[in-house]
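Board work, copied verbatim: DNA replication complex GINS protein PSF2
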Amino acid sequence: MALPLPPGLTPPEVAFLCEMELVTVIPRQRLESLHLLSGQTPNLTPPHRKNIPLWLALLLKKQRRANIAPPPWLRIHSLQGILDHEIDPENPAFSPPPKPPLGASTTTAPFLDSAISTAPPNALPYHWQELGEILLQAAPDDFEDVDQVRRLMRDLREVRMAKIRKGTEVLDAGGGIKFNGVGGLEVCESRAFISGVIDGLRRIASSKEQARRDKDAEDRENGYGATQDDDDEMLQ
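↓ predict structure ↓
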């Protein structure tokens, strides 16, 4: 009997969706256009850069038919700048996500061209964590200093997850958490923790309410809950 899955997407499912992001490749061989369900891919001619889906870029990289150009935000100086923004105590919010293109009112974060070579260098896209891990594993030779990039990615993930956990402190006071700029995998990984905190606060509030009702009932039984009208009648 299969166990019920938790609500929401699992990390492998989030990574699968990430593979539909567009990335920039530098082809080593000529490749004619492919007709896919999502559309037609461009013709690949060395050494002209082209944007193709990540899953196709990974396949060509594995076959040594293309190199993958890391997006600008995945470079060392960009990651360091974003990390400095995250650890700055004067900036409690997360680093801002990429801005949608002009005139694209229905465009949402997962469908922006935020992983190609012309992406903004100072903004983390929606799939930044899973995309970075995939590229670091599949194309480490396409990075200038892959070890430093890995360290910055790890530090950035830890800082942002700590910020998410710290944000749950306002829930006890009836506040809310702003998730502007939080990535897909971060939401997936923190969903269980935040849901547990909310459920715990709900149980605490319910027990407090029940205790208050029990105390009111006990006071009424002992005569401590008499109203002012009852006191006036007793005096008459």
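Residues 226-235 have pLDDT under 50 and may be disordered.
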